[in-house]
Specification:
- It contains four helices and three strands; from the N terminus they run E-H-H-H-E-H-E.
- It is mainly alpha-helical.
- The protein has a single domain, classed as Rossmann fold (3-Layer(aba) Sandwich), CATH 3.40.50.
- Strands 1-2-3 form a three-stranded parallel sheet, with helices on one face.
- Strand 2, helix 4 and strand 3 form a beta-alpha-beta unit.
- The longest helix has 29 residues.
- The protein is elongated, with a radius of gyration of 19 Å.
Length: 160
């Protein structure tokens, strides 16, 4: 990679994200009786371990591996323009900050919370290299991840 970018790079944007909560998301499977422990347990135990693993691997692991892989190029690129440093921007989600069931998407919300924490760890680790790490956590907007599940009965975008 260093041969293709001999002066390094100044920006890395990590924007990968998947949601594999198809068996528990409320928009397609309904919401369990949230006062019935057995109903809650039965509903969320429909989650598949491999779906959790895929979600964590993509939404968290990719940030780690890409950031570590490109760190040398980012550090080199940060020396090109005096007064400027290189930066990693990780796109997470507002879901990673919200408490509650996240409309039945536990693995997605947990992975985005983990991505946010990983970003803080990377920022601390990269201090000596002068490579900054920042997070963008978009809220609710129409996308493949947030389609009909994000529209309340009044037609308003919402996660509740």
């Amino acid at each position: 990679m260093c041969q293709k970018e001999p002066n390094g790079i100044q920006l890395l944007v990590n924007n990968a994200g998947i949601a594999r909560d198809d068996s528990t998301k409320f928009s397609t499977n309904g919401q369990p009786d949230m006062e019935d422990a057995q109903a809650i347990s039965d509903h969320f135990l429909k989650s598949q371990p491999e779906n959790w693993a895929d979600t964590m691997k993509t939404n968290v692991g990719s940030i780690f591996w890409m950031s570590m892989t490109f760190l040398p190029l980012l550090a080199k690129g940060g020396k090109v323009t005096p007064g400027y440093t290189s930066q990693v921007i990780n796109v997470t989600s507002i879901s990673g900050y919200m408490k509650g069931s996240s409309s039945g998407q536990f693995s997605y919300a947990s992975s985005k919370a983990a991505a946010t924490h990983l970003s803080r760890m990377l920022a601390t680790t990269f201090v000596g290299t002068k490579v900054r790490v920042n997070i963008i956590a978009p809220g609710v907007f129409p996308s493949e991840v947030c389609s009909s599940r994000c529209v309340n009965p009044n037609g308003v975008m919402s996660l509740s």
